[in-house]
Design brief:
The complex is a heterodimer of chains A (164) and B (149). Chain A contains 5 helices and 5 strands. The radius of gyration of chain A is 20 Å and the shape is elongated. Helix content of chain A is 35%, strand content 26%. Chain B has 149 residues and is α+β, with helices and mostly antiparallel strands. The chains are: A alpha+beta (164), B alpha+beta (149).
């Protein structure tokens, strides 16, 4: 496996060692350093650099939506004109209840939607109320939309890169 | 879950510092001891309230690729299809959704070329056509869910 230009083999070893989680010990980076036979200061400096580069988006706890009460998880999908989608997407992304907002390609004739916005709520009514706010913001530009509710998590592991 | 568990989840979704004792700093912010934070984190993981504690990697920034893809699995073979899709290590998340396209999954690979290979393999192994929805633009990503009492 080739190593991408902005990370080296040591970064890669750090990623492999931490992608499933940080050790739950007082000095987690020292534990990783020991495991990889590195200097703890180097581990900390490299993790900070990976954060700065955006290779690490953030470090923290990842809750299970369902377990913390978000039982209604709706992927709202929208058909809006390509000419205005970027401006609209930025505005939809600013709504505090939208966790992800992306432009994605249409797959005609099966799939006409080009904007995806994830909305989480305790109930479907709550999600629908939030989706109505998106519809209002999009106004006359909405040609069609749907909410695809998740009914089950089939898998949730996060990233897995191999140690090779 | 009590008020302290909720405070942990609400305050630690993206702010665990990179330093010698990150849990100590985080515990001080919440107003509890380091040992208590560690014990609670371990319990939250065990109870599956948390799926993970650690860095969220953005594979595209290291030369890799992500995509969202979907397929329409027949009701009577849904579980078998899910099993085949989930068996691939490149499949990071997979959700059942209410739609004709009833299975939606995220594929993460170390090079952009591998996305197509993984999709082709899923099509071959499941017999289902896979619709690939790579992102063309990302407007916002910040999954922080608040836990209310």
């Amino acid at each position: 496996m080739s190593v991408p230009h902005n990370i080296d083999a040591v970064d890669r070893a750090l990623i492999v060692a931490t992608q499933q989680g940080l050790p739950l010990v007082a000095r987690p980076y020292h534990a990783i350093a020991e495991q990889l036979e590195l200097d703890p200061e180097e581990v900390i400096a490299r993790m900070r650099r990976l954060l700065e580069l955006g290779v690490i988006r953030r470090i923290g706890v990842v809750p299970n939506h369902y377990a913390i009460g978000y039982r209604a998880n709706g992927m709202s999908v929208w058909d809006v004109p390509d000419e205005v989608i970027d401006e609209l997407g930025e505005r939809v992304g600013q709504l505090e209840f939208v966790s992800h907002c992306y432009r994605r390609p249409r797959r005609l004739p099966h799939w006409r939607y080009n904007m995806f916005a994830m909305v989480h709520g305790k109930t479907r009514d709550e999600v629908e109320e939030k989706v109505a706010q998106i519809a209002e913001l999009l106004g006359e530009h909405v040609r069609d939309y749907q909410i695809l509710y998740s009914t089950r998590i089939l898998k949730k592991t996060g990233l897995r890169i191999s140690g090779g | 879950m009590d008020a302290i568990d909720r405070a942990i989840i609400n305050s630690l979704q993206g702010d665990l510092p990179v330093c010698e004792r990150p849990y100590l700093e985080a515990a001080q912010r919440i107003g509890i001891g380091e040992d208590e934070l560690l014990a609670r984190l371990s319990s939250l993981l065990e109870r599956k309230v948390l799926t993970r504690i650690g860095p969220l990697y953005q594979i595209e920034r290291m030369g890799g690729a992500f995509t969202l893809a979907a397929l329409s699995a027949p009701a009577d073979t849904y579980e078998q299809v899910a099993e085949k899709v989930n068996a691939l290590p490149e499949v990071a998340h997979n959700y059942a959704r209410e739609h004709a396209l009833n299975m939606w999954f995220v594929v993460a690979t170390e090079t952009p070329e591998q996305i197509e290979q993984v999709i082709a393999r899923i099509e071959r192994e499941t017999g289902c056509e896979v619709f690939n929805f790579p992102k063309s633009r990302e407007y916002f990503v910040e999954l922080k869910l608040k836990v209310a009492p």
